[in-house]
Amino acid sequence: MNIKPIKNDDDLTLAVLRMRSLRGAELGSPEGDEIEILATLVEAYEEKHHAIDAPDPIEAIKFRMDQMGLKDADLTPFVGQRSRVTEVLKKQRALNLRMIRNLHKGLNIPLDALVKDYPLERETM
Description:
By secondary structure, this protein is mostly helical. The chain folds into two domains: 9-49; 57-114, lambda repressor-like DNA-binding domains (434 Repressor (Amino-terminal Domain), Orthogonal Bundle), CATH 1.10.260.40. It is built from seven helices and no strands. Helix 1 (9-21) packs antiparallel against helix 2 (30-49).
């Protein structure tokens, strides 16, 4: 086992290729241990250099709507009247606590995705 720190994307590629070559190794074996160590190094490197920001609450809602095949009007039980749904989805109105609770409970959207701050758009006329 010759493991070294992952310092750049080339090192990352080599580590991933090595993990793939060890696929199927038994847990607790030297190869299995090597996979675990490499996985930890890969995860740390990717988190630091290739982190993906969590979506803002409205993007999270739209993603869930897409997953569930929902239309804007389907959000009225969770957000309120249709005009309010439109304002929320256009980021003209912020989510309030009641909406956040309803969306979490009704659509199973994680609370941490819904409570994140996001900028509101100005209305254009």
